[in-house]
Every structure is written in C-alpha cells, then in structure tokens.
C-alpha cells in the first residue's frame, strides 16, 4: 500500500464518508480523507485491499456498497467504467439503497456523461444528490493530494462536498450541470492523446537524426513546446521505460468515451480517432499495461 504524501489539509468539519473502490487512484484518495480527519468507511470488491487500507489508515470496511453508504454524509466512488459504477450504485447491494436524504454521492470514475445524467436523475428522485467528478493527475497526483477535479451537478451539493474533495485535490471546479465533469475529462484526454503522439514523433525523429534528445528536451522545454508530458514523460520515453503511469488499456477506454460522445454531439475528432488506433497497435504489441507514453514504441 502506497501511503499518502505529506499535505496540509484545509480546516473542515469532520464528515462521515464512504469510499468505494481502492484501486491505484482510490486507495490514496481515501487515505487523504482519513488523514484530513474524516470518518472513513471503505468498500472494495477484493476485500483484502480493504483490509490492507485499514492497516495503513484506520477506519472501517464494509462488505457491500450499501453497507458502506449507510449513515454516510458523502459517498465517493472511483471504479472502472459505466458498468462498474452502476453496480456500486443501483446494482444488487448498491450504495443508492442506503443513501440518506440530503446526502451526496460523488463519482470520480472516468465514465460517460450519459451515465452521470442517468444516476443524477435517479439520485434526485430518491432525495439525495449526485456529482460527477472525474479527476486528472494520475497515481502520483492521487498520492500527493494534487488532483484536478472536474465536476458536474447541483451547485449547492457541489459547495458542500468541495472542501472534502480538496483533501486530495489542488483544484476542484464546477463546470455545469450533470455530465459536465465527464465531458471536461474527455476534453482533457483528447488534449493528452495529441500531446503524447506529438512528443513520441519528435523524440523518434530526433533520435533518428542523431541528436542528444535529453539535451534537446532540456532546451525546447524552456520554450513554446514545453508541456507536462515533455517534462515528465519525455525523459522516460528516451529511456524506453513504460512501467508506470496511466495504462494503455485505460486510455483506450477513455478515448472510446470521447469518440462515442463525438458521434452523439457531431464533433469531429480525426486525430483522436487515429491515435486511438495507434494505441490499439500498442495493445497488439503486448503493451496493454504500459504507460500511455509507449506510443513511441510504434515508431522504433
């Protein structure tokens, strides 16, 4: 279990919170909530992960999402996809069965805008609120409490949960009605896909030209070409290291959401569609769990 990094927490009244999903993102996020002084109950499909988390952070575990949600002021989730989200909310033993009137469900899963709107409507009919709140910043952002959180939903509910979310975030912004957070995350992933492919092509080109690419990145990284991807993934791409970060399988899931939404709203994503197929090539190469910067492997 990777423990949460040192962070100064805002002074917030302790809340009874539940956290569903203790993966590489969820575990440190829930850890920050515990260290910020909140009473945390966790649920994970693999119970051993819950037990390991409790050894590190305290709190208690629940056998089902419904049990975890019972008595909670705020329930947060970070699971895999739309189906996983429906399972922990409205599925058998889902959290919605025990959500209290006036409580708030905060979903940090990168999912579709459609499922966010669907679950928001269900929550409203049952007397509580739903905020879609996907995150950006990766595992290191979660560990360091420095995630960027993009939210959609009711403004009053958002203001209630924002101080709690800030336990693991550096920014938390309401962008509109339900689904807006998920749509903003799609914008984020579209930008990242283009940046990574451009960086991959640039590094591969420079290496073919015989340049010292570490030195080149050091120079151009001080100019208009600078980006987070260049600073953090450029050096590891040069070294052909991809055993960390955001996996190709996850990126393809996210880009699939972007392309499906584009079909619905009429947006044109020609470059995104092409890079999605490049990631498919990486999967065929055996890179399903490689970091997304592994796009450069296609060019070598």
Question: Could you describe the 3D structure shown?
Answer:
With 300 residues, the chain is α/β, with parallel strands linked by helices. It folds into 2 domains: 16-177, Rossmann fold; 183-299, N-(1-d-carboxylethyl)-l-norvaline Dehydrogenase, domain 2, CATH 1.10.1040. Helices cover 48% and strands 12% of the residues. The protein is built from 12 helices and 9 strands. It has helices spanning 26-35, 47-57, 65-69, 82-89, 113-125, 138-143, 155-165, 180-208, 213-220, 228-238, 248-265, 270-284; strands spanning 16-20, 39-43, 60-61, 74-77, 104-107, 129-132, 135-136, 147-151, 169-174. Strands 3-2-1-4-5-6 form a 6-stranded parallel beta sheet. A 3-stranded mixed beta sheet has the order 7-8-9. Strand 8, helix 7 and strand 9 (169-174) form a beta-alpha-beta unit. Helix 8 crosses helix 10 (228-238) and helix 11 packs antiparallel against helix 12 (270-284). The mean pLDDT is 96.
Q: What name goes with the CATH superfamily of the largest domain? A: NAD(P)-binding Rossmann-like Domain
CATH architecture of the largest domain: 3-Layer(aba) Sandwich
Form type: globular
Which range does the strand content fall in? 5-15%
Observed structural traits:
N-(1-d-carboxylethyl)-l-norvaline Dehydrogenase, domain 2; globular; 300 residues; 12% strand; 12 helices; three-stranded mixed β-sheet; Rossmann fold; alpha/beta; 9 strands
């Amino acid at each position: 279990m990777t423990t949460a990094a040192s962070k100064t927490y805002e002074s917030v009244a302790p809340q009874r919170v539940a956290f569903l999903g203790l993966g590489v993102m969820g575990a440190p996020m829930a850890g920050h909530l515990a260290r910020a002084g909140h009473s945390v109950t966790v649920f994970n499909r693999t119970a051993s992960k819950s037990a390991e988390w409790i050894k590190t952070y305290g709190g208690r575990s629940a056998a089902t999402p419904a049990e975890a949600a019972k008595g909670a002021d705020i329930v947060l989730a970070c699971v895999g996809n739309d189906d996983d989200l429906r399972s922990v909310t409205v599925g058998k033993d889902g959290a919605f069965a025990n959500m209290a009137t006036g409580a708030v469900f905060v979903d940090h899963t990168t999912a579709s805008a459609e499922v966010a709107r669907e679950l928001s409507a269900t929550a409203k009919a049952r007397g509580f609120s739903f905020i879609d709140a996907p995150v950006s910043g990766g595992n290191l952002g979660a560990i360091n409490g420095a995630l960027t959180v993009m939210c959609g939903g009711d403004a009053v509910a958002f203001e209630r949960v924002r101080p709690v979310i800030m336990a693991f975030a550096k920014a938390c912004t309401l962008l509109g009605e339900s689904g807006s957070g998920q749509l903003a995350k799609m914008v984020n992933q579209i930008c990242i896909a283009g940046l990574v492919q451009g960086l991959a092509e640039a590094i591969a080109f420079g290496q073919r030209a015989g340049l010292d690419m570490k030195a080149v990145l050091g120079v151009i990284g001080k100019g208009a070409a600078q980006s987070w991807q260049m600073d953090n993934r450029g050096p590891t791409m040069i070294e052909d290291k991809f055993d960390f970060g955001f996996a190709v399988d996850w990126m393809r899931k996210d880009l699939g959401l972007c392309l499906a939404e584009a079909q619905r709203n009429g947006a044109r994503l020609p470059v995104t569609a092409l890079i999605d197929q490049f990631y498919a090539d990486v999967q065929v190469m055996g890179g399903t769990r490689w970091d997304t910067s592994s796009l450069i492997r296609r060019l070598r």
